[in-house]
Amino acid sequence: MSSSPDASSKIYVSHQSAKHFTVSLLTAHGVSPAHAQTIAHALVAADLRGIDTHGLNRLPSYINRIRSGVLDPLASPELNQITPVVSHIDGHNAFGFVSAHLGMESCIAMAKEYGIGMCAVKHSNHFGMAAWIVQQAVDADMMSLVFTNSSPALPVWGGREKLMGVSPLACGAPGGEGREPFVLDMAPSVAARGKVYKALRRGEKIPLGWALDEEGNETEDPAEALKGVMLPMGGPKGSALAVMMDVFSGVLSGSAFAGGVTNPYDASKAADVGHFLVAIKPDLFMDLETFRERMGVLYEKVVGSKRMKGVERIWFPGEIEQVTRREREKNGIPYVKAEIDALNREAERVGCGKIVIMGSVPRAKL
Ligand SMILES: NC(=O)c1ccc[n+]([C@@H]2O[C@H](COP(=O)([O-])OP(=O)(O)OC[C@H]3O[C@@H](n4cnc5c(N)ncnc54)[C@H](O)[C@@H]3O)[C@@H](O)[C@H]2O)c1
């Protein structure tokens, strides 16, 4: 099929091609095949779940960090067992995906034996969409908490300078039999800053209420918003959640905190991101089957709740993204031309193959 899409029309890529492309590009930059698989899995998971802000489009910024020598593609995180239920990882400036994956693996192993496992990670990097780590725990039948800190983007309540990160907090639990898991993954801002970067890439406006420009005025212009601040959700409560992410991920872990984390798009110095991860065995107080039955009841009560006028359907947290994942696994992941071009430019620079596209029509419509 030929495709000559305009700037906003979508180009579809299968998740297998997206993963293959990502692994090739990363290994061409010296990342080990095992680490490249972990990173590709997380980035493609974001694109599949509709979190396009944290998928393959982040590759050029990560590669720019490698090229500038502020992210070490060869590094391997080092795990120290502190107590039987607590581990500590020094990421040694490896990809955040690799350190977080190892951290959750360690939490799961501890929780399988002792019911709970907790890991603090220091000297790490951006780990993208937090939900892929929650899913790692769900796949092992575990509940989880996933926190990270991030670069300054948000003022504290009453302040007007960027100080806290728009740092996501995520948590999850296995779902009822045949039901989706519970997956909450949210930034403490009205919108994740990645959505502003995405609007900038795509030449789109952002809604009023997401951000203020440098002068403190509301703005629809993503470039002005990036110079200014993101607005916390729920006023002081969103700002306090951002502080909470810094307490657990930065102060506790030994990583940067209080505005010290470097922006993933600033390739002048190491990011020094911290993470905080917990896995909990759901069958501590009852058997897993009973837990799942109870989750099933909760799901039915939530989605079956009386709807407000104009609401067609009530969703369980994470369910919209699961539906998107199933649809994109079947029909492909939509990108725009500028995004595909940026990825192919990276591929050209290291002589690896272009991303294989399905065309400008989703697979279902071919
Ligand atoms: N690594 C980082 O530094 C970083 C920083 C910021 C954001 N992020 C990522 O950005 C992503 C987007 O964050 P966000 O805050 O914009 O997410 P969002 O507002 O799109 O969703 C937040 C949560 O609300 C749920 N939800 C959304 N609409 C719903 C509905 N109609 N009914 C029921 N539940 C609903 C979602 O399932 C999700 O769990 C996240 O994956 C986050 O991890 C990462």
UniProtKB/TrEMBL annotation:
Gene3D superfamilies noted in UniProt: 1.10.1530.10, Hypothetical oxidoreductase yiak, domain 2 (3.30.1370.60)
Which residue windows are coiled coil? none
Q: Which InterPro entries match?
A: Mal/L-sulf/L-lact_DH-like_ah, Mal/L-sulf/L-lact_DH-like_NADP, Mal/L-sulfo/L-lacto_DH-like_sf, Malate/L-lactate_DH-like
Decide whether keyword RNA-binding is in the record: no
User: What is the top-level taxon of the source organism?
Assistant: Eukaryota
Recorded GO MF terms: oxidoreductase activity
Keywords of this protein's UniProt record, alphabetized? Oxidoreductase
Indicate the family of this protein: Belongs to the LDH2/MDH2 oxidoreductase family.
- The name of this protein is L-sulfolactate dehydrogenase-like protein
Whose protein is this, by species? Glarea lozoyensis (strain ATCC 20868 / MF5171)
